[in-house]
Amino acid sequence: MTEPTPVAPADGSPPDSDAARLQDLGYKQELRRSLGVLGNISMGFAVVSPVVALYAVAMVGTTVAGPAWIWALPLVLLGQCLVVNVYSELTSQWPVAGGPYQWGRRLLGPSFGWMGGWVWQFAVMFGNTTVAYLAAPWVFALIGVTPSPGQMVAVSMAILIGCMLVNAYGIKILSLVVSLGIAAEAIASVLVGLTLLLFFREHGFALFTETMGAEALSGGSTVMAFLAAVAVAGWAFIGFDACVSTSEETKDAGRQVPRAMWWSLLSVGAVVILNAMAVALAHPRPEKVVAGQDLDPVTTAVTTAFGSWSDKPFVAVVLVGFLACAMASQGGAARGLYSLARDGVFPCSAQVKKVNERQAPIGGLIASTLVSGAALLLGLNATAIGSLIAFGTAATFLPFFLTALAALIARVRGTWVPSGHIRQGAKGTFLNVLAVLWTGFEVVNVCWPREILAPPGAPWYQVWAGLLGTAVIIVIGLLYLVVKRPQDKIRDAGATPAPTAGEPGAEGTGALATEAS
Q1: Which residues, at least 6 apart from 287, have a Cβ–Cβ distance to it below 8 Å?
Q2: Over the stretch 433-455, which tens digit does the pLDDT of each residue have?
Q3: Residue 351, C-beta contacts closer than 8 angstroms, at least 6 positions apart
Q4: Strand partners, 250
Q5: Within 144-250, where are the H helices?
Q6: Predicted TM-score (pTM) of this structure
Protein backbone atom coordinates (compact mmCIF):
# COMPACT_ATOMS: atom_id res chain seq x y z
CA MET A 1 0.00 0.00 0.00
CA THR A 2 1.44 3.36 -1.03
CA GLU A 3 1.24 6.07 1.60
CA PRO A 4 0.61 9.61 0.31
CA THR A 5 3.23 12.22 1.03
CA PRO A 6 1.85 14.56 3.71
CA VAL A 7 1.22 18.08 2.49
CA ALA A 8 3.33 20.71 4.28
CA PRO A 9 1.24 23.84 5.00
CA ALA A 10 2.68 27.21 3.97
CA ASP A 11 2.66 28.46 7.56
CA GLY A 12 5.20 25.86 8.65
CA SER A 13 2.76 23.80 10.73
CA PRO A 14 3.03 19.97 10.74
CA PRO A 15 2.35 18.14 7.46
CA ASP A 16 -1.36 17.51 6.81
CA SER A 17 -2.20 13.85 6.14
CA ASP A 18 -5.87 14.75 5.51
CA ALA A 19 -4.87 17.14 2.73
CA ALA A 20 -2.57 14.43 1.37
CA ARG A 21 -5.45 11.97 1.32
CA LEU A 22 -7.62 14.50 -0.50
CA GLN A 23 -4.81 15.15 -2.95
CA ASP A 24 -4.56 11.39 -3.43
CA LEU A 25 -8.20 11.53 -4.57
CA GLY A 26 -7.39 14.29 -7.05
CA TYR A 27 -8.41 17.46 -5.19
CA LYS A 28 -6.58 20.20 -3.34
CA GLN A 29 -7.58 21.32 0.14
CA GLU A 30 -9.66 24.51 -0.36
CA LEU A 31 -12.10 24.34 2.57
CA ARG A 32 -10.93 24.92 6.15
CA ARG A 33 -10.29 21.59 7.88
CA SER A 34 -11.02 22.43 11.51
CA LEU A 35 -13.86 20.17 12.70
CA GLY A 36 -13.31 17.45 15.26
CA VAL A 37 -15.66 14.51 15.63
CA LEU A 38 -18.00 16.47 17.92
CA GLY A 39 -18.29 19.27 15.38
CA ASN A 40 -19.09 16.76 12.66
CA ILE A 41 -21.67 15.05 14.89
CA SER A 42 -23.33 18.42 15.52
CA MET A 43 -23.87 18.90 11.78
CA GLY A 44 -25.59 15.55 11.41
CA PHE A 45 -27.56 15.94 14.65
CA ALA A 46 -28.82 19.37 13.58
CA VAL A 47 -30.07 18.19 10.20
CA VAL A 48 -31.79 15.07 11.57
CA SER A 49 -32.99 17.24 14.52
CA PRO A 50 -35.29 15.55 17.05
CA VAL A 51 -37.55 18.62 17.32
CA VAL A 52 -37.95 19.02 13.55
CA ALA A 53 -38.39 15.28 13.10
CA LEU A 54 -41.05 14.99 15.80
CA TYR A 55 -43.06 17.96 14.57
CA ALA A 56 -42.88 16.68 11.01
CA VAL A 57 -44.33 13.26 11.79
CA ALA A 58 -46.19 13.11 15.12
CA MET A 59 -49.54 14.52 14.03
CA VAL A 60 -49.61 12.85 10.61
CA GLY A 61 -48.44 9.49 11.97
CA THR A 62 -51.15 9.48 14.64
CA THR A 63 -53.80 10.51 12.13
CA VAL A 64 -53.04 7.69 9.70
CA ALA A 65 -52.37 4.85 12.17
CA GLY A 66 -53.44 6.00 15.65
CA PRO A 67 -51.12 5.76 18.68
CA ALA A 68 -49.80 2.45 17.28
CA TRP A 69 -47.92 4.46 14.66
CA ILE A 70 -45.11 4.71 17.21
CA TRP A 71 -43.83 1.28 16.13
CA ALA A 72 -42.96 2.72 12.72
CA LEU A 73 -40.16 4.76 14.33
CA PRO A 74 -37.88 1.91 15.50
CA LEU A 75 -38.52 0.08 12.23
CA VAL A 76 -37.39 3.06 10.15
CA LEU A 77 -34.47 3.69 12.49
CA LEU A 78 -33.30 0.11 11.98
CA GLY A 79 -33.61 0.50 8.21
CA GLN A 80 -31.60 3.71 8.26
CA CYS A 81 -28.89 1.99 10.29
CA LEU A 82 -28.41 -0.28 7.27
CA VAL A 83 -27.88 2.80 5.11
CA VAL A 84 -25.36 4.30 7.55
CA ASN A 85 -23.49 0.99 7.54
CA VAL A 86 -22.98 1.24 3.77
CA TYR A 87 -22.15 4.95 3.97
CA SER A 88 -19.57 4.21 6.66
CA GLU A 89 -17.61 1.84 4.45
CA LEU A 90 -17.76 4.32 1.56
CA THR A 91 -16.74 7.44 3.45
CA SER A 92 -14.00 5.51 5.25
CA GLN A 93 -12.41 4.91 1.87
CA TRP A 94 -13.45 8.13 0.11
CA PRO A 95 -13.90 10.94 2.68
CA VAL A 96 -14.96 13.56 0.14
CA ALA A 97 -17.75 16.17 0.08
CA GLY A 98 -20.64 15.28 -2.22
CA GLY A 99 -20.90 11.61 -1.20
CA PRO A 100 -23.54 10.18 -3.59
CA TYR A 101 -21.86 11.85 -6.57
CA GLN A 102 -18.28 11.02 -5.57
CA TRP A 103 -19.03 7.45 -4.56
CA GLY A 104 -21.37 6.65 -7.45
CA ARG A 105 -18.85 7.77 -10.08
CA ARG A 106 -16.16 5.55 -8.58
CA LEU A 107 -18.42 2.54 -8.10
CA LEU A 108 -20.44 2.46 -11.33
CA GLY A 109 -19.04 5.21 -13.52
CA PRO A 110 -19.48 8.91 -14.30
CA SER A 111 -23.07 8.84 -15.62
CA PHE A 112 -24.44 6.96 -12.62
CA GLY A 113 -22.49 9.11 -10.17
CA TRP A 114 -23.61 12.34 -11.76
CA MET A 115 -27.28 11.32 -11.73
CA GLY A 116 -27.08 10.30 -8.06
CA GLY A 117 -25.49 13.64 -7.21
CA TRP A 118 -28.08 15.55 -9.26
CA VAL A 119 -31.06 13.95 -7.53
CA TRP A 120 -29.47 14.27 -4.08
CA GLN A 121 -28.69 17.97 -4.58
CA PHE A 122 -32.25 18.90 -5.48
CA ALA A 123 -33.65 16.80 -2.67
CA VAL A 124 -31.45 18.65 -0.17
CA MET A 125 -32.14 22.10 -1.64
CA PHE A 126 -35.90 21.56 -1.65
CA GLY A 127 -35.56 20.09 1.82
CA ASN A 128 -34.06 23.44 2.86
CA THR A 129 -37.16 25.13 1.45
CA THR A 130 -39.36 22.87 3.53
CA VAL A 131 -37.43 23.46 6.76
CA ALA A 132 -37.42 27.24 6.29
CA TYR A 133 -41.14 27.26 5.51
CA LEU A 134 -41.98 25.08 8.51
CA ALA A 135 -39.80 27.26 10.76
CA ALA A 136 -41.64 30.46 9.85
CA PRO A 137 -44.85 29.75 11.84
CA TRP A 138 -42.77 29.47 15.02
CA VAL A 139 -41.39 32.96 14.46
CA PHE A 140 -44.94 34.30 14.33
CA ALA A 141 -46.01 32.14 17.27
CA LEU A 142 -43.22 33.65 19.33
CA ILE A 143 -44.53 37.17 18.72
CA GLY A 144 -48.21 36.20 18.78
CA VAL A 145 -49.08 37.11 15.16
CA THR A 146 -51.20 35.17 12.66
CA PRO A 147 -49.31 35.37 9.33
CA SER A 148 -50.62 35.75 5.81
CA PRO A 149 -49.19 33.51 3.04
CA GLY A 150 -47.05 36.40 1.83
CA GLN A 151 -45.65 37.01 5.31
CA MET A 152 -44.88 33.32 5.67
CA VAL A 153 -42.86 33.35 2.46
CA ALA A 154 -41.07 36.59 3.42
CA VAL A 155 -39.99 35.27 6.83
CA SER A 156 -38.97 31.92 5.28
CA MET A 157 -36.79 33.78 2.79
CA ALA A 158 -35.25 35.82 5.62
CA ILE A 159 -34.42 32.55 7.40
CA LEU A 160 -32.67 31.20 4.28
CA ILE A 161 -30.67 34.40 3.83
CA GLY A 162 -29.74 34.54 7.51
CA CYS A 163 -28.54 30.94 7.38
CA MET A 164 -26.51 31.73 4.27
CA LEU A 165 -24.76 34.61 6.04
CA VAL A 166 -23.84 32.40 8.99
CA ASN A 167 -22.54 29.72 6.60
CA ALA A 168 -20.52 32.31 4.70
CA TYR A 169 -18.43 33.01 7.81
CA GLY A 170 -16.92 29.56 7.54
CA ILE A 171 -17.21 26.15 9.12
CA LYS A 172 -15.97 27.19 12.58
CA ILE A 173 -18.69 29.81 13.06
CA LEU A 174 -21.30 27.50 11.54
CA SER A 175 -20.28 24.65 13.83
CA LEU A 176 -20.34 26.93 16.89
CA VAL A 177 -23.81 28.32 16.15
CA VAL A 178 -25.21 24.90 15.28
CA SER A 179 -23.64 23.30 18.37
CA LEU A 180 -25.16 25.91 20.68
CA GLY A 181 -28.53 25.40 19.02
CA ILE A 182 -28.54 21.64 19.28
CA ALA A 183 -27.30 21.77 22.87
CA ALA A 184 -30.36 23.82 23.83
CA GLU A 185 -32.59 21.63 21.69
CA ALA A 186 -31.23 18.33 23.01
CA ILE A 187 -31.34 19.34 26.69
CA ALA A 188 -34.86 20.72 26.38
CA SER A 189 -36.05 17.71 24.35
CA VAL A 190 -34.68 15.13 26.77
CA LEU A 191 -35.88 17.00 29.87
CA VAL A 192 -39.36 17.57 28.47
CA GLY A 193 -39.64 13.98 27.22
CA LEU A 194 -38.52 12.41 30.49
CA THR A 195 -40.71 14.74 32.57
CA LEU A 196 -43.80 13.98 30.51
CA LEU A 197 -43.08 10.26 30.62
CA LEU A 198 -42.38 10.06 34.34
CA PHE A 199 -44.83 12.57 35.83
CA PHE A 200 -47.59 13.48 33.40
CA ARG A 201 -48.78 10.24 31.83
CA GLU A 202 -52.50 10.19 31.10
CA HIS A 203 -52.48 6.69 29.61
CA GLY A 204 -50.82 3.33 30.04
CA PHE A 205 -48.38 1.79 27.57
CA ALA A 206 -51.25 -0.31 26.20
CA LEU A 207 -52.14 2.85 24.24
CA PHE A 208 -49.51 1.85 21.69
CA THR A 209 -51.53 -1.22 20.70
CA GLU A 210 -54.51 0.93 19.63
CA THR A 211 -55.31 2.50 16.29
CA MET A 212 -58.53 4.23 17.45
CA GLY A 213 -60.10 3.61 14.06
CA ALA A 214 -57.42 5.45 12.08
CA GLU A 215 -57.26 2.56 9.61
CA ALA A 216 -60.61 3.73 8.23
CA LEU A 217 -58.65 6.28 6.18
CA SER A 218 -56.81 3.36 4.53
CA GLY A 219 -59.93 1.45 3.55
CA GLY A 220 -60.09 -0.31 6.89
CA SER A 221 -56.71 -2.01 6.41
CA THR A 222 -54.41 -1.88 9.43
CA VAL A 223 -51.48 -3.01 7.26
CA MET A 224 -51.98 -0.16 4.78
CA ALA A 225 -52.35 2.30 7.66
CA PHE A 226 -49.05 1.14 9.14
CA LEU A 227 -47.29 1.37 5.77
CA ALA A 228 -48.48 4.97 5.54
CA ALA A 229 -47.02 5.57 9.01
CA VAL A 230 -43.70 4.06 7.89
CA ALA A 231 -43.68 6.42 4.89
CA VAL A 232 -44.29 9.38 7.22
CA ALA A 233 -41.69 8.22 9.75
CA GLY A 234 -39.09 8.16 6.99
CA TRP A 235 -38.80 11.94 7.34
CA ALA A 236 -37.64 11.58 10.95
CA PHE A 237 -34.33 9.84 10.21
CA ILE A 238 -32.78 11.58 7.20
CA GLY A 239 -29.97 14.12 7.26
CA PHE A 240 -27.12 12.09 8.78
CA ASP A 241 -25.36 12.45 5.41
CA ALA A 242 -24.66 16.07 6.40
CA CYS A 243 -21.69 14.53 8.23
CA VAL A 244 -20.37 13.38 4.83
CA SER A 245 -20.87 16.85 3.33
CA THR A 246 -18.33 18.28 5.78
CA SER A 247 -15.78 15.48 5.27
CA GLU A 248 -13.23 17.86 3.75
CA GLU A 249 -13.49 20.09 6.83
CA THR A 250 -13.19 17.27 9.39
CA LYS A 251 -9.88 16.11 10.84
CA ASP A 252 -9.11 12.42 10.28
CA ALA A 253 -12.31 12.28 8.24
CA GLY A 254 -11.98 8.66 7.15
CA ARG A 255 -12.31 7.56 10.77
CA GLN A 256 -14.37 10.32 12.35
CA VAL A 257 -17.15 10.82 9.78
CA PRO A 258 -18.46 7.23 10.06
CA ARG A 259 -18.50 7.58 13.84
CA ALA A 260 -20.29 10.92 13.56
CA MET A 261 -23.00 9.46 11.32
CA TRP A 262 -23.69 6.67 13.81
CA TRP A 263 -23.77 9.03 16.77
CA SER A 264 -26.04 11.50 14.95
CA LEU A 265 -28.57 8.93 13.81
CA LEU A 266 -28.72 6.89 17.02
CA SER A 267 -28.83 9.85 19.40
CA VAL A 268 -31.57 11.59 17.44
CA GLY A 269 -33.41 8.29 17.07
CA ALA A 270 -33.42 7.74 20.81
CA VAL A 271 -34.68 11.27 21.51
CA VAL A 272 -37.40 11.12 18.84
CA ILE A 273 -38.74 7.78 20.08
CA LEU A 274 -38.61 8.97 23.70
CA ASN A 275 -40.51 12.18 22.93
CA ALA A 276 -43.00 10.55 20.58
CA MET A 277 -43.93 8.09 23.33
CA ALA A 278 -44.00 10.81 26.01
CA VAL A 279 -46.24 13.10 23.94
CA ALA A 280 -48.69 10.30 23.14
CA LEU A 281 -48.93 9.13 26.75
CA ALA A 282 -49.27 12.68 28.13
CA HIS A 283 -51.80 13.92 25.56
CA PRO A 284 -55.21 14.36 27.23
CA ARG A 285 -57.27 13.38 24.18
CA PRO A 286 -55.35 11.32 21.58
CA GLU A 287 -58.62 10.49 19.83
CA LYS A 288 -58.81 14.17 18.81
CA VAL A 289 -55.46 13.84 17.07
CA VAL A 290 -56.68 10.75 15.22
CA ALA A 291 -59.81 12.65 14.17
CA GLY A 292 -57.72 15.55 12.87
CA GLN A 293 -59.07 17.97 15.48
CA ASP A 294 -55.67 18.66 17.10
CA LEU A 295 -53.07 19.69 14.53
CA ASP A 296 -50.34 20.32 17.12
CA PRO A 297 -50.38 17.41 19.58
CA VAL A 298 -46.83 18.09 20.81
CA THR A 299 -47.61 21.59 22.05
CA THR A 300 -50.94 20.40 23.45
CA ALA A 301 -49.22 17.73 25.54
CA VAL A 302 -46.54 20.14 26.80
CA THR A 303 -48.83 23.03 27.73
CA THR A 304 -51.38 20.70 29.32
CA ALA A 305 -48.66 19.20 31.53
CA PHE A 306 -46.65 22.31 32.40
CA GLY A 307 -49.28 25.01 32.12
CA SER A 308 -49.78 27.92 29.73
CA TRP A 309 -46.58 29.64 30.95
CA SER A 310 -44.55 27.01 29.08
CA ASP A 311 -45.97 27.97 25.70
CA LYS A 312 -43.47 30.70 24.74
CA PRO A 313 -40.33 28.96 26.08
CA PHE A 314 -41.34 25.79 24.26
CA VAL A 315 -41.94 27.73 21.05
CA ALA A 316 -38.46 29.25 21.41
CA VAL A 317 -36.86 25.81 21.78
CA VAL A 318 -38.69 24.53 18.71
CA LEU A 319 -37.62 27.58 16.70
CA VAL A 320 -33.98 27.07 17.73
CA GLY A 321 -34.18 23.48 16.52
CA PHE A 322 -35.56 24.52 13.15
CA LEU A 323 -32.94 27.24 12.68
CA ALA A 324 -30.05 24.91 13.54
CA CYS A 325 -31.47 22.36 11.11
CA ALA A 326 -31.80 24.97 8.35
CA MET A 327 -28.22 26.20 8.81
CA ALA A 328 -26.65 22.76 8.80
CA SER A 329 -28.79 21.51 5.91
CA GLN A 330 -27.96 24.56 3.80
CA GLY A 331 -24.27 24.06 4.57
CA GLY A 332 -24.50 20.46 3.38
CA ALA A 333 -26.27 21.47 0.17
CA ALA A 334 -23.61 24.10 -0.58
CA ARG A 335 -20.78 21.62 -0.14
CA GLY A 336 -22.48 19.09 -2.41
CA LEU A 337 -22.83 21.76 -5.11
CA TYR A 338 -19.17 22.70 -4.61
CA SER A 339 -18.17 19.06 -5.12
CA LEU A 340 -20.05 18.88 -8.44
CA ALA A 341 -19.00 22.31 -9.64
CA ARG A 342 -15.24 21.88 -9.11
CA ASP A 343 -15.44 19.03 -11.64
CA GLY A 344 -17.28 21.39 -14.02
CA VAL A 345 -20.39 19.19 -14.18
CA PHE A 346 -23.07 21.48 -12.75
CA PRO A 347 -24.70 24.48 -14.46
CA CYS A 348 -22.69 27.69 -13.90
CA SER A 349 -19.85 25.65 -12.39
CA ALA A 350 -17.33 28.51 -12.60
CA GLN A 351 -19.42 30.56 -10.21
CA VAL A 352 -20.77 27.75 -8.03
CA LYS A 353 -17.32 26.33 -7.18
CA LYS A 354 -16.02 29.61 -5.71
CA VAL A 355 -14.64 29.62 -2.18
CA ASN A 356 -14.40 32.87 -0.19
CA GLU A 357 -11.54 34.14 1.96
CA ARG A 358 -12.98 32.33 4.98
CA GLN A 359 -12.70 29.06 3.03
CA ALA A 360 -16.48 28.66 2.82
CA PRO A 361 -18.13 27.46 -0.44
CA ILE A 362 -19.77 30.83 -1.15
CA GLY A 363 -20.76 29.93 -4.70
CA GLY A 364 -22.61 26.84 -3.51
CA LEU A 365 -24.25 28.81 -0.70
CA ILE A 366 -25.60 31.43 -3.10
CA ALA A 367 -26.78 28.82 -5.62
CA SER A 368 -28.46 26.73 -2.94
CA THR A 369 -30.20 29.77 -1.47
CA LEU A 370 -31.44 30.87 -4.90
CA VAL A 371 -32.93 27.45 -5.69
CA SER A 372 -34.46 27.00 -2.23
CA GLY A 373 -35.76 30.59 -2.27
CA ALA A 374 -37.35 30.19 -5.70
CA ALA A 375 -39.17 27.09 -4.48
CA LEU A 376 -40.49 29.12 -1.54
CA LEU A 377 -42.78 30.97 -3.94
CA LEU A 378 -44.88 27.83 -3.89
CA GLY A 379 -45.66 28.75 -0.29
CA LEU A 380 -48.08 31.36 -1.60
CA ASN A 381 -50.27 28.33 -2.25
CA ALA A 382 -50.52 25.88 0.66
CA THR A 383 -51.41 23.01 -1.67
CA ALA A 384 -48.29 23.59 -3.74
CA ILE A 385 -45.96 23.63 -0.72
CA GLY A 386 -47.51 20.33 0.33
CA SER A 387 -46.46 18.88 -3.01
CA LEU A 388 -42.92 20.11 -2.43
CA ILE A 389 -42.79 18.43 0.99
CA ALA A 390 -44.01 15.14 -0.49
CA PHE A 391 -41.44 15.32 -3.29
CA GLY A 392 -38.63 16.19 -0.89
CA THR A 393 -39.23 13.08 1.20
CA ALA A 394 -39.33 10.80 -1.84
CA ALA A 395 -36.29 12.35 -3.49
CA THR A 396 -34.26 11.99 -0.29
CA PHE A 397 -34.66 8.22 -0.15
CA LEU A 398 -33.83 7.76 -3.84
CA PRO A 399 -30.12 8.70 -3.43
CA PHE A 400 -29.94 6.36 -0.43
CA PHE A 401 -31.19 3.59 -2.69
CA LEU A 402 -28.92 4.49 -5.61
CA THR A 403 -25.82 4.63 -3.40
CA ALA A 404 -26.58 1.31 -1.68
CA LEU A 405 -27.33 -0.28 -5.08
CA ALA A 406 -24.09 1.00 -6.61
CA ALA A 407 -22.08 -0.37 -3.68
CA LEU A 408 -23.76 -3.76 -3.94
CA ILE A 409 -23.31 -4.07 -7.69
CA ALA A 410 -19.63 -3.12 -7.42
CA ARG A 411 -19.13 -5.68 -4.63
CA VAL A 412 -20.77 -8.46 -6.62
CA ARG A 413 -18.80 -7.59 -9.73
CA GLY A 414 -15.61 -7.57 -7.70
CA THR A 415 -14.76 -4.04 -8.87
CA TRP A 416 -14.95 -2.65 -5.33
CA VAL A 417 -13.41 -4.15 -2.25
CA PRO A 418 -13.74 -1.76 0.72
CA SER A 419 -10.24 -0.55 1.52
CA GLY A 420 -10.72 2.13 4.15
CA HIS A 421 -10.31 1.28 7.80
CA ILE A 422 -13.87 -0.14 7.82
CA ARG A 423 -13.92 -3.47 5.98
CA GLN A 424 -16.72 -5.86 6.82
CA GLY A 425 -16.22 -8.57 4.24
CA ALA A 426 -19.12 -10.99 3.78
CA LYS A 427 -21.09 -9.35 6.60
CA GLY A 428 -20.84 -6.02 4.78
CA THR A 429 -22.21 -7.58 1.60
CA PHE A 430 -25.15 -9.12 3.48
CA LEU A 431 -25.97 -5.82 5.19
CA ASN A 432 -25.60 -4.05 1.85
CA VAL A 433 -28.26 -6.36 0.38
CA LEU A 434 -30.60 -5.50 3.26
CA ALA A 435 -29.89 -1.78 2.73
CA VAL A 436 -30.88 -2.05 -0.95
CA LEU A 437 -34.09 -3.91 -0.05
CA TRP A 438 -34.97 -1.38 2.67
CA THR A 439 -34.30 1.77 0.63
CA GLY A 440 -36.00 0.32 -2.46
CA PHE A 441 -39.07 -0.50 -0.38
CA GLU A 442 -39.14 2.96 1.20
CA VAL A 443 -38.78 4.76 -2.14
CA VAL A 444 -41.85 2.90 -3.43
CA ASN A 445 -43.68 3.33 -0.13
CA VAL A 446 -43.07 7.10 0.03
CA CYS A 447 -43.89 7.65 -3.64
CA TRP A 448 -47.09 5.59 -3.40
CA PRO A 449 -50.03 7.96 -4.02
CA ARG A 450 -52.09 8.26 -0.83
CA GLU A 451 -54.97 10.66 -0.48
CA ILE A 452 -54.71 10.42 3.32
CA LEU A 453 -51.30 12.14 3.23
CA ALA A 454 -52.68 15.09 1.28
CA PRO A 455 -55.03 17.80 2.56
CA PRO A 456 -58.75 17.11 2.12
CA GLY A 457 -59.78 17.93 -1.44
CA ALA A 458 -56.19 18.25 -2.65
CA PRO A 459 -55.76 18.05 -6.45
CA TRP A 460 -54.51 14.84 -8.01
CA TYR A 461 -51.01 16.18 -8.62
CA GLN A 462 -50.41 16.63 -4.90
CA VAL A 463 -51.49 13.05 -4.22
CA TRP A 464 -48.94 11.95 -6.83
CA ALA A 465 -46.38 14.63 -5.88
CA GLY A 466 -43.69 12.26 -4.62
CA LEU A 467 -43.63 10.22 -7.83
CA LEU A 468 -44.17 13.16 -10.19
CA GLY A 469 -41.57 15.40 -8.57
CA THR A 470 -38.94 12.67 -8.56
CA ALA A 471 -39.72 11.78 -12.18
CA VAL A 472 -39.35 15.42 -13.29
CA ILE A 473 -35.92 15.78 -11.64
CA ILE A 474 -34.75 12.48 -13.17
CA VAL A 475 -35.98 13.41 -16.67
CA ILE A 476 -34.30 16.84 -16.51
CA GLY A 477 -31.12 15.15 -15.30
CA LEU A 478 -31.19 12.63 -18.15
CA LEU A 479 -31.67 15.43 -20.69
CA TYR A 480 -28.68 17.25 -19.19
CA LEU A 481 -26.63 14.06 -19.47
CA VAL A 482 -27.52 13.72 -23.16
CA VAL A 483 -27.12 17.38 -24.14
CA LYS A 484 -24.27 18.65 -21.92
CA ARG A 485 -22.54 15.29 -21.36
CA PRO A 486 -21.10 16.04 -17.90
CA GLN A 487 -19.97 12.41 -17.73
CA ASP A 488 -17.21 13.25 -20.24
CA LYS A 489 -15.86 15.97 -17.95
CA ILE A 490 -15.96 13.62 -14.98
CA ARG A 491 -13.70 11.17 -16.77
CA ASP A 492 -11.15 13.95 -17.20
CA ALA A 493 -11.61 15.47 -13.73
CA GLY A 494 -8.86 15.43 -11.12
CA ALA A 495 -10.15 12.53 -9.05
CA THR A 496 -9.62 9.19 -10.72
CA PRO A 497 -11.92 6.20 -10.32
CA ALA A 498 -10.94 3.65 -7.71
CA PRO A 499 -8.83 0.74 -8.94
CA THR A 500 -10.72 -2.47 -9.44
CA ALA A 501 -10.06 -5.58 -7.41
CA GLY A 502 -6.76 -7.13 -8.36
CA GLU A 503 -5.24 -3.92 -9.71
CA PRO A 504 -2.40 -2.11 -7.96
CA GLY A 505 -3.75 -0.04 -5.14
CA ALA A 506 -7.03 -1.96 -4.88
CA GLU A 507 -6.22 -2.85 -1.33
CA GLY A 508 -6.48 0.82 -0.39
CA THR A 509 -4.53 4.03 -0.76
CA GLY A 510 -3.80 6.98 1.43
CA ALA A 511 -2.95 7.55 5.04
CA LEU A 512 -6.45 6.64 6.17
CA ALA A 513 -6.56 3.24 4.51
CA THR A 514 -5.32 1.29 7.49
CA GLU A 515 -6.17 -1.98 9.12
CA ALA A 516 -9.82 -2.95 9.31
CA SER A 517 -11.44 -2.07 12.58
Answers
A1: 212
A2: 999 999 999 999 998 998 888 77
A3: 341, 363, 366, 367
A4: 35
A5: 149-168, 171-199, 222-233, 242-245
A6: 0.89
